Amino acid sequence: SAESLRYSTGTGGEGSEGAGLASSESGGSGFSLAAAALPERRRPGGGRPRYEVVRELGAEEVRWFYREDRKTWKPFIGYDSLRIELAYRALGAAGGPGEPREGEAVEPVCVRSGLYEVDVANAESYPVYWNQTEKIPVMRGQWFIDGTWQPLEEEESNLIEQEHLNRFRGQQLQESFDMEVSKPVDGKEAIHSLKLSRNHVDWHSVDEVYLYSDATTSKIARTVTQKLGFSKASSSGTRLHRGYVEEATLEDKPPQTSHIVFVVHGIGQKMDQGRIIKNTAMMRDTARKVEEKYFSNLATHVEFLPVEWRSKLTLDGDTVDSITPDKVRGLRDMLNSSAMDIMYYTSPLYRDELVKGLQQELNRLYTLFCSRNPEFEEKGGKVSIVSHSLGCVITYDIMTGWNPVRLYEQLLQKEEEEEEDRWMSYEEQRLLEELYITKQRLREIEERLHGLKASTISKPPVLKFKVENFFCMGSPLAVFLALRGIRPGNSGSQDHILPRTICNRLLNIFHPTDPVAYRLEPLILKHYSNISPVQIHWYNTANPLPYEHMKPSFLNPTKEPTSVTDGDSVSTVPSPTTSPVMVRRHYGESITNIGKASILGAASIGKGLGGMLFSRFGRSSTTSPEGGKEGAEGDEKKATAVGTPPLSHSSSGFLEPIVELEHRIDFELREGLVESRYWSAVTSHTAYWSSLDIALFLLTFMYKHDQEDPDKSTLEAV
């Protein structure tokens, strides 16, 4: 009955009348969530409350579990478990809980900080924000294995529970229950027994229940140990507990999300579409550990959502596959599914499709999140983006609205200006003036037409949210910007490459040996090519210096060049267009080994970018591609100063430049002490996802304004 499901005691003196969601229908479908109204009676040392008589398990004693990747069962938090149990009991009919009434549907239960939903009828869970082929099984736990508190399989658990209630319902329990699970039961005969398919269960008392395996080897072991004087229970039985070790409460709920992070993948997702989901899960789990250690005093948390934009695109269909030779097919397929994305992005035919694919997915996820979390926008929730590899370039282009057509128009305008300077005949000049007037008139008509459209239809913003932080990881963005004509300025402001009105903070993270990563700071101020990137703190550093207080230092303080020639520019002072990450070390490997590394890199990380490895690590006297690019900028730059303006430095090697960046942008991971430099060049491009150092770095910036007491915190606001 519903009454038996309430939080009642054997005496009937205490209860929660009217405080819960109890049904008056028979069959055990009643459900009370009035745990807060009860005086807590826990086991010594922590545990769930105990009751004086055997009765049906309360909703707070049942615990639901889920299992991912065929690993062990993990318990849902109390808040989730209670709500799943409510749905389970609401689904019950006269025959018992869990049997759906005909034509009845129960709403899915939102769990795990809102990232997943549970379909109680089918006992499975699935993600809300991304697609996943394999469903996650869920299970209702009633009986648990001693020590591990893993649930017994549901079928066995139901049989044991039914037998327990039939035999012991209404019987008095011990007044005091202690956690001494190894309390001897020697000499006690089983007062009740239940045979299962491969096991049997013995009750030595109401509270002392053991599970035995009926396998032949177990019987032999049991016989031997019993002859040696050990009891039957202690020799081969597994003690079982009825009800979970902790009661489930509605107070045991996740903190509210105050900041969402969209995680954008780079190239190669066609080859492994689920990889960004796994990578984001690694980053989320790592961030949870960091939150527990450093930010547990905050009432909010940061949520990470994967943005899988590649699989929905059609692009050329299978045209590239059809023209691929059959020889070395595996390697060809890998290159087609990875390096081809860069070619697609530089193609005017497909670039827009890639941009729109990512833009629509970002907006879809944000709209869906806000619809499920209506308070997020009301309470000023923030959005950041973490992009990897080519994803950084596409995200940047979406935020800034950059389009190659504009570049083409600028080139045409430059050609027109050059045309005016040369000698022309009278007829040619007259036709050119007529063409100029016609173009001017055409522009005026277009502007009027756009004005009329704008007055009736307001153009929606490209993204439906303002980006607080844009984190680039292993990013080639600097190369793309340099090839688009961006050159260093003299303001020291992030606005030179990304206006603060679009994105509050740009941060470029890279591993020192990542062959795809390039620096951004020298594109803003040229002399930063000889200033070391900021070193990211190790996760376990005690009292780290806030990033804003870290002084800039020379890459090569002992050499401190004042001017360079064109020939020296490749090996001594990097150009702002290349700005290699590791200028401090000279890699003395042969070209053959570097070639091997590039092939391994392609096979390992889906990057057909062997040329980048050559350009980054093959530092010889021969002219590299970057050297040719630098030389093409003009002969008048053959003897330029390293930095505009002049730099002064102290004996310690720290710089005191006249013009500094408003905020540092380039942040470098510290190299491991034992890692191979060349092997790390192959693996480093994908090493960001599970790094505790990066997780701490991201959260430090995202929790910047949420620190309650920055003076006491070891992670002072940066």
From TrEMBL:
One of its GO terms (cellular component) is cytoplasm. One of its GO terms (molecular function) is phospholipase activity. Residues 1-49, 557-580, 620-649 are annotated as: Disordered. SMART domains: DDHD. Residues 463-704 form the DDHD domain. Residues 557-568 have a biased composition (Polar residues). Residues 19-38, 569-580 have a biased composition (Low complexity). InterPro entries: DDHD_dom, PA-PLA1. Residues 39-49, 627-639 have a biased composition (Basic and acidic residues). It comes from the Eukaryota. Belongs to the PA-PLA1 family. This is DDHD1 Phospholipase. The lineage of its organism: Eukaryota, Metazoa, Chordata, Craniata, Vertebrata.
